[in-house]
Amino acid sequence: MELQYWIWIAVGISFSLYIGIAIWSRASSTKEFYVAGGGVPPIANGMATAADWMSAASFISMAGIISFNGYDGSVYLMGWTGGYVLLALLLAPYLRKFGKFTVPDFIGDRYYSNYARGVAVFCALIISFTYIAGQMRGVGVVFSRYLEVDITTGVVIGMCIVLFYAVLGGMKGITYTQVAQYCVLIFAFMVPAVFISIIMTGNAIPQIGFGAAGSDGVYLLDKLDGLHRELGFHEYTTGSKSTLDVFLITLALMVGTAGLPHVIVRFFTVKKVSDARKSAGWALLFIAILYTTAPAIAVFSRTNLIETVSNKEHANLPGWFEKWQTTGLIKFDDKNQDGLIQYVADPEINELTVDADIMVLANPEIAKLPNWVIALMAAGALAAALSTAAGLLLVISASVSHDLIKKIINPAVSEKNELIAARLSAFGAVLLAGYFGVNPPGFVAATVALAFGLAAASFFPAIVMGIFSKRMNKEGAISGMVVGILLMLFYMTKFKFGWFGGGTKEDWWFGISPEGFGSFAMLINFVVSIIVSKLTPPPGQKIQSLIENIRKPN
Fold first, then answer.
1. Residue 387 domain-assigned?
2. Disulfide-capable partner of 256 in 203, 426, 455, 512 (CB 3.0 to 4.6 Å)?
3. Is residue 516 part of a domain?
């Protein structure tokens, strides 16, 4: 059967499943819309959390950036994995015991201030829109190749699908849809990895295969290092970033994870605190399956790409190259007019431009796997992008309807009108998200990394000190969040978008990249918060007793 038929079958079945689940589990109350009624079993919540967490950045872009950057790309692997451990152990159980629907809700009540709540709403919206831009970009990349439409049309199709089950089902619909999406995405990620590992190394376990010897007896990583040296790239297993920047990017991704509102809200969907801990454990297991496989896929795809295209005749390349060329994500410019592809590090000589986001998706085609495997990859990539986009849409709608309208603007609003406001907010959010998907600030992983930096700079200090410091007051928390988020926004827009005079890599402050600057902004947030809180009155006894209570086990 032709590839296109397989793709329509795989995508059609998976989308029908998601829509069917959304109709079956549609929300009928605000509690069901915001936290799925608070009765999700731990293992199901673990799967949903893993699907929410493993976005297009994890599925599509993480292995892609590792495949191009090698050792330098490992910061994403370490930061995102370590960050979830930090969230599960340090914050999730305490936030669940506090019992609020959203992060702004926690901050508003903990810091006894609607000003604090308003700042938190602003931060949540900025973080979520930056994050969702990466997801919609991923949706556009997948649709543009597999459904053979342009990226803009692909984004619009994705918007319609995610809007349907997010608006109809709320968190209840999203949770059970994400359980199905996890099953689809992990199967789609692992099957090609196992196939290619067997082909290249004879080992069916990718995690072992990429460190093993190939059919020629040469260890795969040694072979890839040699290919990189021949083409003028730095060795795959050595890094080019400074130690400081690697540390700060990893730290920003870790603490940013612990401040991400769409992941934190997952721990409010279970019945009790012990279930929050259990679901965190299940989620770690489910996440580890993909995260330990990504470095293997990176090595397989990078090796296959170089051996397939470097110094080969453009006219005789396999069909996958031409199909990806039509998307504009891989480009060949025959500078010396010899018909051969010169793929080298020197930009003056190099004739091939490859977007890192295509590596995972193109890998099964490069390895000449069966069409049904390629179709499965398309369905998995869409599941990864849409699951996270849905979670982010819910955060945005809850921030507007619950935290802004219900808690600040009109506390007397009825539950019915609040639910209508939540659905209208989700509709408006998906339109804006679609715009960012068509006009993203970078490839998927880099865009998402900026969202983590924003979360680190704004939420992490306020949440940590809100749980573990009885002295932290509203003045300190508000000052810290405002300074942190504005500093990160300034640095991000200056060096990513060229605002405020722009700047090049040489102009980075202390050599810190925009992806790593969230760590610096977070430290400034901590310093400002502590100093201001010391100069202003402490919280009342009621708040201090509340903090003491949430730190005690049930």
1. yes
2. 455
3. no
Q: Which two tokens stand for residue 330?
A: 């891989």
In order of 76, 287, 306, 479, the CA distances from 291 in angstroms are: 10, 6, 24, 36
Helix, strand, or coil (residue 233): coil
**Phi and psi dihedrals of 354, rounded to 5?**
-125, 125
Output the CA–CA distances (angstroms, integers) from residue 64 to 132, 356, 502, in the order listed.
Answer: 19, 5, 27
- CA-to-CA distance for 536 and 246, rounded, in angstroms? 37
Q: How far apart are CA 113 and CA 93, in angstroms?
A: 23
Residues contacting residue 160 through CB under 8 Å, at least 6 positions apart: none
C-alpha to C-alpha distance for 211 and 218, rounded to whole angstroms: 10
Say which residue the tokens 């929300």 belong to: 27
CA distance 171 to 140: 24
The one-letter code for the residue type at 445 is: A
Residue 198 CB coordination number (10 Å): 14
pLDDT at 531: 96
CATH number of the domain that residue 11 is part of: 1.20.1730.10
State the amino acid at position 217 in one-letter form. Answer: G
304 Cα distance to chain centroid: 26
One-letter identity of residue 34:
Y
Strand-pairing partners, residue 353, are 331
What is the distance between the alpha carbons of residues 155 and 133, in angstroms, rounded to a whole number? Answer: 10
Residue 194: domain span = 3-303+367-441
Side-chain-side CA neighbours of 393 within 13 Å: the count stands at 39
Q: What angle do CA 400, 516, 330 make, to 5 degrees?
A: 90
Q: How far apart are CA 525 and CA 531, in angstroms?
A: 10
Q: pTM value?
A: 0.79
How many domains, in total, are found in the chain? 1
- Tell me if 10 is assigned to some domain: yes
Residue at 167: amino acid letter: V
- Angle (nearest 5°) at CA 237 between 234 and 242: 70
Paired strand residues for 292: none
CA distances to 51, 64, 131, 299, 355 from 443, rounded to whole Å, are 20, 10, 12, 20, 8
Q: What is the three-state SS of 208-227?
A: HHCCCECCCCCEHHHHHHHH
pLDDT tens-digit series, residues 32-80: 555 544 567 888 888 888 877 777 667 777 888 888 888 888 888 888 7
Look at residue 241 in the predicted model and tell me its pLDDT.
77
Residue count (the chain): 554
Taking each helix axis from N to C end, the angle separating 151-201 and 371-398, rounded to the nearest 10 degrees, works out to 130
Q: In this structure, is residue 347 part of a structural domain?
A: no
**Do 78 and 249 meet the contact criterion of CB atoms below 8 Å apart?**
no
